[in-house]
Amino acid sequence: MNDLHLPAFDGILSWKVWKVAFTIAVVASIETLLCVEATDKLDPYNRTTPANRELVAQGAGNIVSGLLGGLPVTQVIVRSSANIQAGGRSSLSTIVHGMLIVVSAMLLPDLLRSIPFACLAAVLLLVGYKLVKPSQFRTMWNSGIMQFLPFLVTVVCVYAIDLLWGVGLGLFVSIMYILWKNYRVPYHFEQNKHRSGLPIHIRLSEDVTFLNKAGIKRTLLELPRGCQVVLDASRTIDLDPDVREIIDEFLASAPDREINVELIGYDTPPPKPVSVEALAGIVRKFAADTGGSRTRTRTQ
Fold first, then answer.
1. Is the pLDDT at 290 greater than 80, yes or no?
2. Any idea which fold 187-264 has?
3. Cα separations in angstroms, 148 against 17, 153, 156, 184
4. Using an 8 Å Cβ cutoff, are 203 and 188 in contact?
5. pLDDT in the model for residue 55
6. Would you place residue 60 in the very low, low, confident or very high pLDDT band (cuts 50, 70, 90)?
């Protein structure tokens, strides 16, 4: 009990304190969410942990721990995995686990300090091996290189640097792959399966960004004259305005190229209002045509 100390609130207004607190909160929350996902995958009963309740409980625990001078608390996959392997099925196992830790820390502190670090390291290595077995590497490799690469980067960086950097770099590799794939495949057009005389089907992806502008523009310009095109945007959720402008320009020029376009799930733009200059030109042309007709009638 002598190790418990109330916090000093002298630095409560210091930005350095808030910076460290924010960093700890973000890191602990990310680690907890990752552990929640891993624990749900390890659960033999396929149950789902409520993430919001887990974060609220973690926040409340950190407040109490900070007021007592303790370290920040977070979910750890090692304890969760050991709990599952020991046969724990309900939240009662977590409560008993916590009570055993509190009782041991209060009644057996000297005995806990005498446990060699090598024994704790052996437990961590065994649990870690069960979490990432060599067969898991083979499974990820069989799933494809772009599934295996983020997995490998995450595992290596977590081991070589730390958890936050490993997860961050793994997410970065995954995001770059998604952007690259979206850039390469903004639409689906199986040119090898197309037959002359049949409609050309172009299906847009779910997310079409400005990175796809050049590819879509090139494809629409290379469409043969007099063909029939089916533009399917039924699966598209986010269509960049620049890409929409390209498609609208294509729709406006399609009659001049004798291209018949069928739209699916794409909203055509409203007709532009006629300007004053254009209206005046139409009136002058109509007047000239009418005057020419009257002149020819009188001549006859």
1. no
2. Transcription Regulator spoIIAA (3.30.750)
3. 39, 9, 12, 20
4. yes
5. 92
6. very high
Tokens encoding 41: 């995958």
Query: pTM for this structure?
Result: 0.50
- Give Rg (Cα) of the chain: 33
Contact 248, 269 (CB under 8 A): yes
Q: Give backbone dihedrals phi and psi of 203, rounded to 5 degrees, phi first.
A: -110, 120
Interaxial angle between packed helices 77-85 and 91-107, expressed in degrees from 0 to 180 and rounded to the nearest 10: 110
Q: What is the pLDDT of residue 194?
A: 55
Residue identified by tokens 């290379």 is 222
pLDDT, one tens digit per residue, over 270-282 is 555 555 566 666 7
| Domain span(s) for CATH 3.30.750.24 in the chain | 187-264
CB 159 within 8 A of CB 176: no
Tokens of 208: 């079409």
Confidence of residue 265 (pLDDT cuts 50, 70, 90): confident
Q: Check: CB of residue 236 under 8 Å from CB of residue 212.
A: no
Instruction: Decide if 228 contacts 260 (C-beta within 8 A).
Output: yes
